[in-house]
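C-ALPHA CELLS:
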Amino acid sequence: MTVIAVAIILGMAALGTAIGFALLGGRLLEASARQPELAPMLQGKMFLIAGLLDAISMIAVGMALFFTFANPFVPAALKAIGG
C-alpha cells in the first residue's frame, strides 16, 4: 500500500511541476513577445518561480522517502490487523 501511495505522490508532483513549467514558459514567451524590452526582467522572475516549482517537487520526493523508509502508519496498521 505504501508503494502505491509513494507512486501517486511522485506522479502528482511530476505532473504538477510539468504543468507549472509549461504554463510559466508559455506566459514568459507571450509576455516577451508583447514587450521585448521587459524580457530580461521577466526572465529573472521566471527563474525565481521555476525554483519554487522545483521546490514543490523536492518536498514531494522528501515526503515519499519518508513514507518509504519511516512510515508512521505501518505499526498502527499492523496492530489493527492483529500482527
Summary: Residues 2-34 form the longest helix (33 residues). The mean pLDDT is 90.
